[in-house]
Design goal:
Elements (H helix, E strand, L loop, with lengths): L1 E3 L2 H13 L4 E6 L5 H13 L2 E6 L19 H10 L4 E3 L3 H4 L25 H16 L3 E5 L3 H13 L5 E5 L19 H6 L2 H14 L5 H12 L5 E10 L12 E10 L2 E10 L1
Parallel strand pairs: 1-4, 2-3, 2-5, 3-4, 5-6
Antiparallel strand pairs: 7-8, 8-9
Helix pairs in contact: 5-6, 8-9
Length: about 280
Amino acid sequence: MRIIRSKKEMSAISRQIRRQEKTLGFVPTMGALHQGHLSLIQRAREETDFLVVSIFLNPIQFGPEEDFKRYPRVFKRDARLCRREGADVVFYPKADDMYPADFKTSVSVSELSQVLCGRFRPGHFQGVATVVAKLFNIVSPDIAYFGQKDAQQAIIIKKMAWDLNMPVKIKFVSTVRQNDGLALSSRNIYLKPKERKDATVLYQALNLARHLIKQGNVSARDIVRRMKQLINKKKTAVVQYISIVDLKDLRPVDKIKGKVLIALAVWVGKTRLIDNIIVNV
């Protein structure tokens, strides 16, 4: 496995792989890898000939009051995990190289970026789309892999790639959970013991929604109300939003039919957690 810091060198490697007519898989990450990231790497390793994992803590997707400074930075550990899982290259660029002093361009996917998490994190998805567009141009992957836990992000990236005619296929990989249902996240390490226990209520609320729909309840308003009631029983948990939206355009639905995304964001103590499920009615 090679660790590449230069954009020029990374692009040269990608061109070489293309000349060899090999498929190039790509897993973009911000580091602090956990089993959720590794599931993406494993899937990519199975399906492509050459695998690139990027580790880049993207400063422009964090708001001024968010956790950029304290976000875990454990590159040596991350590199060991990538090597163990069979990555061919870890692309580890510097922020100054990705965003030089005269950098002035951004990518925005309108509408999709203003709903759900976008309502509470202005500029976040513009930062995500911009860095992923840059990474796609540098790495030139055939297939890029994203986790369902960040479903809105994955949907936005897929739309961006389609709208801008980027020659990359976007694949979603199911959320990886701990035994008690908590979705794996690099931010879980912020949780205190009581908060960690209470955080399981996110998945409990999603499962409640799934159960209600199976019973024939198709009222989005009623299901959201019942989910909030369950979460509010936990003293450390404060609901930021719960939404039931169409899976394609992320527009809210009144009556649940077809494929919908049930998504939520909850503050557990001082840690903001997100989770979702997809339900097909």
